Amino acid sequence: MTMNTFRTGPASLWIAITARSLSTAQTIASWVAFAVLFASVHTAPSSEASEPREIPDIRGPKPSFPRLMGMNIGAKNYDDPAYQSQLARLDVVILGFYKGWKPGYGMAKVVRNLKELSGGKILVGQYTILNECEGPVLK
Asked: Does residue 73 carry a pLDDT above 80?
């Protein structure tokens, strides 16, 4: 079995054609495909000839440090406006809501207030102990 292997371009593109296992039409089609690939690699503009372009930074503004985090899971006074204003000064806050926590006030309202008071910069997380969860998922 004869194996003709061709290597083109810096990307190390390898094309292997087995002469005996291909029909004449397949061989011609393979050679045409090779010629097209070869031409596209060698006629593409080189990176040396073009001007270097600036890549935009999509990460946004650089964060300020130190970052402050609060793990506020003990006393759940999240509905108190004074407590909310203290929490809003943090960069990251972990809260310990539980099922049925003050249904008249609501968890979503607390999170909305914290985001508004902090100017949208605060990250809010939920503290959960999975060992204490009940339900059909864990059984």
From this structure: yes
